[in-house]
Amino acid sequence: MRRLWLLFSAVMLFSFLVLGWIGTRIYQEMPPLFDKVVTTDGNTLIDSGDVSAGQNVWQSLGGMEVGSIWGHGSYVAPDWTADWLHREAIFILDRWADADYGSTFEELDNEKQAQLQARLTALLRTNTLDTETGIVTVDPIRVDAFESNLAHYSDVFSNGNADYAIPAGAVSESSRLRNLSAFFFWTSWAASTNRPDESVSYTNNWPHEPLVGNRPTGDNIVWTGVSIIVLLAGIAGMAWWYASKRNEEEEPLPPESDPLALWEATPSQRATVKYFWVVAALILVQMLLGVITAHYGVEGDGFYGFPLSEWLPYSVTRTWHVQMGLFWIATAWLAAGLFIGPLVSDHEPKGQRLGVNVLFAALLIVVVGSLTGEWLSIQNKMTDTVSFYFGHQGYEYVDLGRVWQIALMVGLLLWLFLMIRVLLPAMRKTGQQRQLVILLAVATGAIALFYGAGLTWGRHTHLSMVEYWRWWVVHLWVEGFFEVFATTVIAFTFMRLNLIRPRIAAAAALLSATIFLSGGIIGTCHHLYFSGTPTVALVWGSVFSALEVVPLVLVGFDATEDLRRSRSSQWVQRYKWPIYFFVSVAFWNMIGAGLFGFMINPPIALYYMQGLNTTPLHGHAALFGVYGMLGIGLMLMCLRVLVPGREWKDGLLRFSFWTLNGGLMAMCLLSLLPVGLLQTKASVEQGYWYARSAEFMQTDLMQTLKWMRVPGDTVFFLGAVALVVFVAGLKTGHSFRRAE
User: Fold this and answer.
1) What total of structural domains would you count in the chain?
2) Low-confidence winner among 93-97, 437-441, 570-574 (lowest mean pLDDT)
3) Span of the secretion signal (predicted)?
4) Does an H or E element contain 36, and which?
5) What is the Cβ-side half-sphere exposure of residue 521, based on CA atoms within 13 angstroms?
């Protein structure tokens, strides 16, 4: 165990040193926020503070929940960076074609088009920033292009656009519309302007836009090859090691009866039950919002003819859908930790029940307050400043206003206090179980503290730095340390049931945590390739994100072991469905995180695929398939232990398990995957803007494929309803078998 702890510590130290160093490089080399944009004849196009003000407008109207910037955000509206760049390019080319040849650019022959494209590339890619004054100088024709784009976006956001699922009045004030356009211009400028003394843009030539010479860089292609080699080497090494270690020590024979059959729930454990009722309610509401959000993709201003967008526009339903998903998953995990604490230490501190109830009230306040604030912000009921603190921050997965963020952080610290005080007696004991308890305490501390990364930015923080820290929350907090926490909790559960020896459980959990984090911490950078970051983020991110996939290749072995344990004795059958959900976690880890994740993560793949439907394909399969299924499994395990002596009616659980998994797979394979692959083809052949455009997404084929989500979504939703009915039945007694 000592060697494993040293390895775990070394991985953590090395990984965070590298990630921190990459953060400093991003800060030093991120796209400059210019002070002004002026023309060569002395006119001011963009004044001081306009870009930052525009960023705040974008945040308050929903930010990443209304289209995307640099490929990060939602998928119905365009990517505003790519859309602005293409519109500006076409405007300039048409103006030149008319002046030189009396024609539109599209009507010219290839030779003349190539001549104008070369001229445009030189115009847009030449860096004219004066670093001393912060002034960018542009040709007067770009003023006309800016005004043309401003007129277009003013129409989209003030009058609404059904194809983009944007309602009328999203932004109506002319000054805010101009600032918003200035922000879009800046993101496009960074995407098409070369870094000083280099031949690539600040976003590593993303998005793909042949008109201005935005094509994959050499680093993009080379490091894709390296990442694939690293992946293959990692898989080979892991398989070799796994084969050498299997069956070194036999697991114990299961006891004749359930070790927890006589367990009597403590007051704090009974107090956690209300968390699970809330989890069930949030699951149901989140699924409903998901159905509505998906439908907006085909009918952007209504729901089967009903003008629902007047009250719940796409930006609201998608925000709530994402936020509620995070809320119920996190609540299930936090409650599972509080429930399992007394099982770990066989001790309940004085006042633990009160602490559990206070935390519950705090979480309710955060949920209700943040969702209300987000609606008010999107409905223009708040100023841009107030919105940041109480409304909508505009950043996907951390949409909630800063005040609610701080409140959630306080709640997590309270949870950490409650967990440590209940685990402390077990940490003081000797024996192999102590190692597992210490790892659980470490994971608990990381979950509580690393959410603090979401508090590192302010209203005017540079977007590249916001992205760096945002992915600390989304990737490290959710995908990293929650993974360690869950692995430890599951290992302890099997150990407590005497189905695995304490030493094996502790060693397996610690080794799994080390392997996951060895790729996962630095692998955070695979989200940052094209977010205004230097090449080092692409180099390190591509290699270590490939290593993230390595342990997922062999999770099937662990799933098989879990299935075997579930059948090892008659009494273990009462834990069948929680264990089955744990098994499904392994399956979706392999498919959603491994297969669908690596499909988009190599730099050359992500260059064309970022922000297409291949992203929600990975997101749904990994977020719900892994973390959602795990949350449900933990909830069911706790509810099973709560009343160990009574048998469950498992008909609804059986239906729920298979329909949730089957519906999720149908959603992925019938709709998200084919839509994403067709978008990728369009992105490669014509440019990223086209793959996200209404012109492409509203074709008959794409509309049909989007409608193909209905079968999977329906089956999936029915599974969620069955789960909620079952959990409610545990309260009413309808989910228990009658005593014979």
Assistant:
1) 2
2) 570-574
3) none
4) strand 36-39
5) 25
In a domain, 254, yes or no: no
| 394 within 8 A of 385, measured Cβ to Cβ | no
Supply the angle between the helices 80-101 and 141-159 in degrees, to the nearest 10. 130
- Between 709-732 and 629-642, two packed helices, what is the crossing angle to 10 degrees? 20
**Cα–Cα dist 561/692, whole Å:** 44
pLDDT surpasses 80 at 558: no
The CATH number for 674's domain is: 1.20.210.10
CA distance 533 to 81: 16
Query: What one-letter code names the amino acid at 404?
Result: W
State phi, psi for 471 to the nearest 5 degrees. -75, -15
pLDDT value for 695: 94
Q: Is 152 contained in some domain?
A: yes
**How would you class 377 by CB atoms within 10 Å of its CB: exposed for 0-12, middle for 13-18, buried for 19 or more?**
buried
pLDDT mean over 2-21: 92
Give the integer Cα–Cα distance in Å for 383 and 391.
9
Better-predicted residue by pLDDT, 412 or 548: 412
Confidence (pLDDT) at 307: 84
CA count, 13 A, side-chain hemisphere, 728: 10
Which token pair is 684?
Answer: 């490669």
Measured at the alpha carbon of residue 592, what is the angle toward residues 590 and 594, in degrees to the nearest 5? 45
Q: Indicate the pLDDT class of residue 398, thresholds 50, 70 and 90.
A: very high
Name the nearest CA neighbour of 375 among 434, 428, 449, 311: 311
DSSP states along 367-387: HHHHHHHHHHHHTT-S-HHHH
pLDDT in tens, 69-111: 999 999 999 999 999 999 999 999 999 999 999 999 999 999 9
Instruction: Answer yes or no: is 655 within a domain.
Output: yes
Residue type, 278: V
Residue 363 has pLDDT above 90, yes or no: yes
The domain of 137 spans 33-215
Q: Does the global pTM surpass 0.85? A: yes
* Residue at a domain's end among 215, 239, 269: 215
DSSP per position, 42-83: S-EEE-TTHHHHHHHHHHHTTGGGSSEETTEE-SSSPBHHHH
Q: Scan for tokens 């070790």, then name that residue.
A: 259
Does some domain include residue 184? yes
Decide if 572 contacts 578 (C-beta within 8 A).
Answer: no
In 3D, which of 708, 667, 594, 636 has the Cα closest to residue 276? 636
pLDDT-derived band at 2 (thresholds 50, 70, 90) equals confident
The answer to whether 481 and 449 are in contact (CB under 8 A) is no
Q: For residue 221, which of 539, 680, 596 has the smallest C-alpha distance? A: 539
End-of-domain residue from the set 198, 215, 232: 215
Distance CA 478, CA 326 (A): 9
